[in-house]
Write a structure and sequence with these properties.
This protein has 587 residues and is an alpha/beta fold. The protein is built from 19 helices and 19 strands. It starts with 7 loop residues before the first helix and ends with a helix.
Length: 587
């Protein structure tokens, strides 16, 4: 019998079953969500057919590997695979080491320096629970930005309908509520919706509030026509008070005419725009408070006499009672008059760090003059432009710089920060006093004769023998106790901070009122001043997070019609005309 040779040429068509079966197996797994026996069988059969095709390729198509088309195809496949590998590596590196560049005008997709610092300072895990599903991309991107600056911040989106036990644990009442969890503490941040997304301002303030380990009490002096703490037509401070409360400050009024001294729990005293002079006992109480390491924020408007000259003169500060005129023209671009300086220059101080050339506004301000005083460190905070001047006669119109009438050219200082380390509270004075008798005993006899004339006549040898013995015996006894020296240094540093007196003087109080508080950097100037005066030096003093501005363009019907004709007719017609002319010239 004779057998017919195998038709190898027909076997090449069986190869297509390999990719088809492989794709069917993978598709079955994707649909079912798991590998079933059917999907595995299809995948294995497809791979076996592809493998057999490669083994029998020489018999199916003799000389296949030597053909030019095979070489070209192989090169194309290798180049394609290499391209996919390169693209995959680029995507992997981009995800693993992502770099973002925010090109928006207000840096909408970049966390403010304060938010970045708050997240970096987290020493324990803080979790953000968002009870909303599905997750909004904008909210998720904002939380991802937070997590980029600190691994201790976590977040999770929860569907309250699918996880009712977790929603009940947080007492969720509405879909969209956002909670913070820090240890055993839970706090509602805000309730988001389609019209109100997650706010960086509220989230950062909530993180500071829930992780804060201290609550400072701020007293606002009252009784002399100062700015009211509630909303008022006369320029209240309700917004400033609310902003302080979000920073863990407790705000209370203070009337020194009803009590002789500043309360012991006061972190600082604020004097905001008094219209009448303080009584001498009140000024003396404030001086005593500063002498004991207190802090004071003074904001005084021109054409007022609060009677604080004795206190301010001791610190080298003088208020000239002139009005600052800004002739730079910057304020006119945003509708401000010349008597409302628009400031873009700031001093080198923790209060104004990272301000750059940001704007702050001070309507009807007076300059603050400084004179160097020994032991007091002063730093200008707010500085006007060189085109400004201090007007001595603002009632005369038009306003023109006249040096003969007492006007002074700019730049002028509108705010100054001062600090003084009180020598009476310095801890090294006592050990020095103990060491000086021993050291001076060999060098000079006069101090010993003055300090120990009553003890030395009878027990001259005994106390001297005890003192050297006491000193060595005390050192070994204290050495194990003094081993945690960092604690002692921290305590001494805290005592030095408490002993340091701080004073800030602004020649204006309007910038903190409700009418101007939310303008540009005005809230940052006020809040950072209070934070520095309360000696929160470990916390971030920087620009507060900003909300995105509404950059909507309002067009008239004529303008919208012109844009419509340009988009639908004029621009396309111009393109077709240009293409037709090029074709005509090249035909």
């Amino acid at each position: 019998m004779t057998t017919k040779p195998i038709k190898w040429t027909y076997l090449k068509y069986l190869f297509w079953f390999g990719p088809i079966l492989t794709i069917m197996g993978i598709t079955a797994q994707e649909v079912a969500g798991e590998w079933s026996p059917v999907s595995l069988a299809l995948l294995i059969a497809g791979l076996l057919i592809i493998g057999l095709w490669f083994l029998l390729l020489d018999k199916i198509a003799p000389g296949f590997w030597g053909r030019r088309s095979t070489q070209v195809g192989t090169n194309a496949i290798i180049a394609t695979l290499a391209m996919f590998v390169i693209i995959g590596l680029i995507n992997f590196l981009g995800v693993r080491y992502g770099v973002q560049i925010d090109l928006t005008e207000n840096q909408l997709f970049t966390l403010s320096p304060q938010s970045q610092q708050v997240v970096r300072n987290l020493d324990q895990s803080v979790k953000v629970w968002v009870f909303e599903s599905p997750a909004n991309p904008a909210d998720q991107e904002l939380l991802e930005n937070y997590r980029r600056y600190g691994s201790n911040l976590e977040f999770e989106f929860i569907d309250p309908q699918l996880q009712p036990e977790l929603a009940q644990k947080f007492n969720v009442n509405y879909i969209g509520e956002v909670y913070l969890e820090y240890g055993n503490q839970r706090e509602l941040v805000q309730t988001i919706s389609q019209g109100e997304r997650l706010s960086e301002v509220q989230l950062t303030n909530a993180i500071e509030r829930i992780t804060g380990d201290r609550t400072d009490k701020v007293y606002f002096l009252q009784g002399h026509g100062e700015r009211p703490l509630e909303a008022s037509d006369e320029g209240g401070l309700s917004q400033a008070v609310s902003a302080l409360e979000t920073k863990n400050f407790t705000v209370e009024p203070l009337n020194l005419a009803e009590q002789p001294a500043v309360p012991d729990d006061a972190s600082l005293i604020v004097i905001a725009g008094p219209k009448r002079a303080l009584f001498e006992p009140e000024v003396q109480a404030l001086e005593n408070y500063l002498a004991d390491g207190g802090s004071l924020l003074v904001m005084i408007d021109p054409d007022t006499n609060p009677g604080l000259e004795p206190l301010l003169s001791d610190w080298g500060v003088t208020l000239t009672n002139q009005i600052v005129i800004d002739a730079s023209g910057q304020g006119r671009l945003v509708g401000l008059g010349p008597a409302t300086p628009l400031v873009t220059q700031y001093g080198d101080h923790p209060i104004t760090q990272d301000f750059g050339t940001g704007f702050s506004i001070y309507p009807l301000a007076q300059p603050v003059d400084m004179e160097p005083v020994e032991g007091i460190q002063e730093t200008p905070l707010v500085i006007t432009s060189p085109q400004s001047w201090a007007e001595n006669t603002p009632e005369q119109q038009p306003l023109e710089f006249n040096e003969q009438e007492g006007d002074r050219p700019g730049p002028l200082v509108l705010g100054v920060a001062l600090s003084r380390q009180d020598s009476s509270a310095s801890p090294p004075s006592e050990p020095e006093a103990e060491e000086t008798p021993e050291a001076e005993g060999e060098d000079t006899d006069e101090p010993e004769a003055e300090e120990t004339p009553e003890v030395s006549p009878e027990d001259t040898d005994e106390p001297e023998a005890e003192t050297p013995e006491a000193s060595p015996t005390a050192s070994p006894e204290e050495s194990p106790e003094a081993s945690p020296s960092p604690i002692q240094t921290d305590e001494s540093q805290a005592k030095e901070d408490e002993a340091e007196s701080r004073l800030i003087v602004y020649g204006n109080s309007n910038f903190a009122t409700d009418s101007w508080f939310d303008q540009q950097l005005n809230p940052d100037i006020f809040i950072n001043s209070v934070s520095w005066l309360s000696k929160r030096d470990a916390q971030a003093l920087s620009i507060s997070p900003k909300e995105p501005e509404d950059r909507r363009i309002n067009l008239t019907s004529v303008q919208s019609g012109i844009l419509g004709w340009l988009a639908l007719l004029i621009v396309p017609a111009f393109g077709f005309l240009t293409a037709g002319m090029l074709w005509w010239l090249r035909r």
